[in-house]
Write a structure and sequence with these properties.
201 residues; 12% strand; Rossmann fold; binds thymidine-5'-phosphate; alpha/beta
């Protein structure tokens, strides 16, 4: 049966590595798996990603939320929905929860407002499981080194707000919170046990 798994967390929490690890384990079980990410997984999305992340000019918070939602609408229609429709598992590095944490809380647009905007973008498609990789800001900063894009370059209050938002949203929405302060193997085992417990692949 098709399942939609989303890996979430702040920058440098190791999401992309863990997406690969989960996808590999699922494939070992003979499942058809699509690995994907936001923003930028489609050709249009790649252009939107560059617009929102690579520019030097300030981006209005509402414009930022709309660009992320535009990327997501294209991603859902081109990648996520077709994969789920053919019965594949989809494992995505980020989805709506990123917008709730970064734009809803970090930018202060409001979680309910950003969620409503994303209803339109996703046509109601929701993950079966959201796993948040939880890493202290100090550890994340040590892993990051020099910032590589506009949002990574933001420090201080914004990063703290996003970090705390993930914890709070995980608690209130039943997202799994996994400690990401370990080796990739250790984190992969913790992530895999959540997948097994919640989705019995
Ligand atoms: P990435 O580094 O995981 O590829 O994500 C790029 C940046 O975009 C990251 O700083 C988080 C941010 N982002 C949002 O602010 N809102 C969103 O909805 C998504 C998907 C990403």
């Amino acid at each position: 049966m098709a399942r939609f798994v989303v890996l979430e967390g702040g920058d440098a929490t190791g999401k992309s590595t863990q997406v690969e690890r989960v996808a590999a384990r699922l494939r070992e079980r003979g499942l058809d798996v699509v690995e994907t990410f936001e923003p930028g997984a489609t050709p249009l999305g790649a252009r939107l990603r560059a617009l929102v992340l690579d520019g030097i000019e300030p981006v209005d918070p509402v414009a930022e939320a709309l660009l992320m939602a535009a990327d997501r609408a294209q991603h859902v229609s081109e990648v996520v929905r077709p994969a789920l429709a053919r019965g594949a598992w989809v494992v995505s590095d980020r989805f709506v929860p990123s917008s709730l944490a970064y734009q809803g809380v970090g930018r202060g647009l409001g979680v309910a407002e950003v969620e409503q905007l994303n209803q339109l973008a996703t046509a109601g498609i929701q993950p079966d499981l959201v796993i948040v990789l939880d890493l202290s800001l100090e550890a994340a900063r040590a892993r990051l080194g020099a910032p590589t894009d506009r949002l990574e370059g933001e420090v201080g209050e914004f990063a703290v707000a996003v970090h705390d938002a993930y914890r709070e949203l995980a608690r209130s929405r039943g997202w799994a919170l996994v400690d990401a302060d370990g080796t990739p193997d250790e984190v992969a085992s913790a992530v895999w046990s959540v997948v097994c417990d919640r989705l019995s692949p």
